[in-house]
Write a structure and sequence with these properties.
Blueprint: E1 6-13, E2 17-20, H1 21-27, H2 32-39, E3 43-46, H3 53-68, E4 77-81, H4 92-100, E5 106-110, H5 116-130, E6 135-143, E7 161-169, E8 180-189, E9 197-198, E10 221-222, H6 224-244, E11 255-258, H7 263-273, H8 284-287, H9 294-304, E12 313-320, E13 324-331
Parallel strand pairs: 4-5, 4-6, 11-12
Antiparallel strand pairs: 1-7, 1-8, 2-3, 6-7, 8-13, 9-10, 12-13
Length: about 325
């Protein structure tokens, strides 16, 4: 029997501050009805001043380690999947390593935008397949409030902050109740469409110089309708790809956790896959689009709430800037 890499512990963290649609109405020209009908979002969590990606990541990671019954010192690798690192240097993974009180691990940041958690899981399973003794922490976190233009009513209503984490080990270890086998991961990208969703300002391609005024390109800029179209098409295709590789269809999926960008996208993908909505994780109303962390938060919350049972086949899918997209098939 083939032994698959295991997710042995899950954790999540969202900041305390809640920003409701009513509050958004006081900030920009919008309404609760407009936001809800187009996105499904009712509120979002926003990091406190000075609360960085490494801080949110730390809380989610401690929860995942606790669920795995492991100490931070047992880890061999730490990956932080983010497009909003604490700084360009040092990496947020190294900062979090220090906050966990450990040294000498292989720590690095990984940026695949909103698909980050899925790309991180694929990196982790590669590590544990090559080095069975490895224990890998994959934390997905974004503090998009720091790259949100709060005067742009098209985008500022969409995003929230949060972190989700998983501990991945080799399948050589005994599978315990609550562990999830990573059956397969399928990932794709298309750089020719990257201009449709960007956060450019301050990068080496759009550098800031001393005294420069921050421009709109420093914040999230998005062609919403085009992103919607590509997200639905590519998420459906990659989900069908990973299922077909194992002789499965949507009817075999017990629970689906899509990227929580927009309820209409999630609903459209589920419909095309033939999945009833009661099998679809939906945290978008409470947290908005938390970028790389959204699938990780949804996975941790769904398991903790008892929505995922032993033996369930769970499908994850995400789509993000780049464009990047992917799907992961798990079995609990």
């Amino acid at each position: 029997m083939k032994k698959y890499p295991l997710i042995r512990g899950l954790g999540r963290y969202v900041p305390e501050r809640v920003v409701t649609n009513a509050e958004m109405e006081r900030m920009v020209e919008t309404t609760d009805e407009w936001i809800t009908s187009r996105t499904g979002i009712k509120e979002r969590r926003i990091a406190a001043p000075g609360q960085a990606t490494s801080d949110l990541s730390l809380e989610a990671s401690k929860a995942a380690l606790g669920a795995a019954g492991m100490s931070a010192d047992e880890l061999t690798h730490l990956f932080v999947c983010t497009l909003t690192p604490d700084a360009y240097c040092p990496p947020s993974a190294c900062i979090m390593e220090e906050k966990l009180g450990v040294r000498g691990k292989a720590a690095m940041d990984l940026n695949a935008a909103c698909s980050g958690f899925l790309f991180g899981l694929d990196m982790a399973r590669a590590v544990v397949c090559m080095t069975p003794a490895a224990k890998v922490l994959v934390c997905a976190c974004d503090v998009l409030s720091t790259r949100t233009n709060w005067a742009d009513r098209r985008t500022c209503v969409l995003f929230g902050d949060g972190a989700g984490a998983a501990v991945v080990t080799s399948g050589d270890e005994e599978k315990r109740p609550g562990d999830a086998a990573i059956i397969d991961v399928r990932l794709h990208s298309d750089g020719s469409l990257g201009h449709l969703l960007t956060v450019k300002g301050g990068g080496s391609g759009s550098p800031l110089r001393l005294g420069d005024v921050v421009g709109e390109d420093f914040f999230v800029q998005m062609s919403g309708q085009e992103v919607f179209k590509h997200a639905v098409r590519n998420m459906v295709a990659v989900c069908e790809e990973v299922l077909a590789a194992h002789g499965l269809t949507g009817a075999d999926v017990d629970y689906f956790i899509p990227h929580q960008a927009n309820w209409r996208i999630m609903e459209a993908v589920a419909k095309k896959l033939g999945l009833p909505l009661e099998k679809v994780c939906a945290t978008v109303a409470l947290y908005g689009n938390t970028s790389a962390s959204s699938v990780a938060i949804g996975l941790a919350e769904s398991y903790q709430a008892g929505k995922i049972k032993p033996g369930d086949k769970v499908l994850l899918s995400a789509f993000g800037g780049g464009f990047t997209w992917g799907a992961v098939l798990l079995e609990f």
